[in-house]
Amino acid sequence: MQRIATSFFSRAFVKSVLYTGSGIASAHLIALLAQPLLTRVYSPEVYGVMASYTAIAAILIPFSTLSYGTAIVIAKDDWEVAALMKLIRLIGLSTSAILLLVIIIVTFFEFHLVSEDIPTLVLFLIPLAVYFAAHNASLNQFAIRTGNFKHKAKAHVLKSFSINAAQLLFGVINPVVLSLLIFKALEGLINNVFLIANKKFRLIVKTLPAPSKEDLKFVAKSYKDFPLFRAPQSLLNAFSIQLPVLALTYFSDSSTVGQFSLAFLMLGAPLMLLATAFVEVFYGKISAEINSNSERVASLILRAALILLAVGIFIFSPIFIFGEQIFILIFGDSWGEAGNFASAMVFWFVSSLMSRPAVSAIPSLRLESHLLAYEVIAVTLRGGLLFISFSHNASAVNAILYLSCLNALLYVVIFVYVYFQAQIRVNENRLSDS
C-alpha cells in the first residue's frame, strides 16, 4: 500500500498535475483579463450571438466524438489508439456533414429554429467548429496518454492568448460578430496547430500505425460503452450547463444573452478554479477514508462543505450587494445588467461550491446511478421553471433569479443526500465491526 501511495504521489505525477492545473488556470486567467478590453470593443448584442453559438456548439460537440476520445488513454496497444483517433475524426466529419446539410435545409426553407438575432453565417460556423473539436479531442487525449502534459498545457495557454488577442485586434478594426466568432469556431484547429508544432509530439503521432477497416470496427465494438453510456451523460451535462443561454436565446434578445454570458463567465471562473483546486486534494483524501471504512467520512464531507460555503460567501458577497456597480466599473457603462444577472446567480454559485465535496465523494460511495437520476430530474425542473417563468412574462433577471434559487435548493438536496448516505455507511461499518 505504501509503495502504491509513493508511486501515486511521485514527483512525475505531481509535476503532471501541476502542469495541467497551471495550464487550465493560466488559460482562464488570460480570458478573464481580456474581458474588460473586449467588452469595451464589442457590444452586448455581439456577445449574445457568441454565447448562443457557443451553447449550440457545446451541445453538439459530444456527438462529434461519441466519447471515444476517453478510450484513447486506456487503450491497450498503439494500433488501437490509431484506430480510435481515426474513428473519432470520421465521426466528427460525419457529424459535421449532417449538421451542414440540416443548416442548408433550415436556411433554404427559412425555418426559425433559433433566434432571428443570430446571423445565418454564424450557423455555418458550427459544423466547422464541431469537426475541429473532434480532431482536437483525439490529439488532446493522445497527449495525455503519452505523458505530454507540459506541452498540452503550453498549447492550451497559447491557444487562449492567440484567440483573445485576435478577437481584440480584429474587434478594434471592425467590432462585428464575425470578428469575435471566427476564432472561437477555429478554437480546435488553433489548439491542434500548437500541439503539432512540437517536433517531439509530432514524431510520436507519426509513429502510429495506419489502421485498417477491421481495426476501426474492432475498437468501435470493444469500446461501445463510451458512446452508449458516457456520451449521453456528456450530452446531458452540456445541455444542463447551456440551458439558461438557450432559454434566453429563444425568449429574449441577443443583448440580454450577452449580459448573462458575461456574468456567468465572471462568476464561473473563480468557482471552477476554487472547486478544482479543492476537490483535487479532497478527492484523494475522502476516497482513502471511504476505502479504509473510516468513521470520519460524513464529518469530513460536512467540514469541507462548510469551509467552501464560508469561502463562497466571502468571495461572492460583494457581487450580491454591488453587482451592477462593479460590472459597470470593470467592463464599461453598457454592462450594468450583467451585474444584475451576477447578483441573481450568487445563491446558485455559492451552493454549487458548497456541494463539491459531496459530489466528489459520489464515485467512492458508488452512487453514480443516483447522480444520473438526479441530473435528469434537475434538468427537467430547470427547463420547466425557465419555460414557466418566461411564459408568465417574467423579466430575464427575475427568471435567472428563480433558476438560481432552484439550483441552490438542488445543490443542497444532493449534498444532504450524499451526507446521509455516508453516515449510513459509517453506521453499517460500526455494526459489522461489532
What does this protein structure show overall?
With about 425 residues, the protein is mostly helical. Helix content is about 85%, strand content about 0%. It has helices spanning about 1-10, 10-40, 45-65, 70-75, 80-110, 120-145, 150-175, 175-185, 185-195, 200-205, 215-220, 225-250, 255-290, 295-330, 335-360, 370-390, 395-434. Helix 5 (about 80-110) packs antiparallel against helix 6, helix 12 packs parallel to helix 16 and helix 14 packs antiparallel against helix 17. Mean pLDDT is about 85; it is low at about 1-10.
Largest sheet: none
* Morphology call: globular
Counting DSSP H or I runs of 4 or more residues, the number of helices is: 17
Q: Roughly how much helix do the residues carry, as a percent range?
A: over 70%
- The total of beta strands comes to 0
What's the quick description here?
This protein is mainly alpha-helical and about 425 residues long. The chain has helices spanning about 1-10, 10-40, 45-65, 70-75, 80-110, 120-145, 150-175, 175-185, 185-195, 200-205, 215-220, 225-250, 255-290, 295-330, 335-360, 370-390, 395-434.
Keywords:
single chain, 434 residues, mainly alpha, 2 domains, 17 helices, disordered N terminus
Task: Furnish the topology, listing elements before pairings.
Blueprint: H1 2-8, H2 11-38, H3 44-65, H4 69-74, H5 78-109, H6 120-145, H7 149-173, H8 177-185, H9 187-196, H10 199-206, H11 213-222, H12 225-251, H13 254-291, H14 297-331, H15 336-361, H16 368-391, H17 396-433
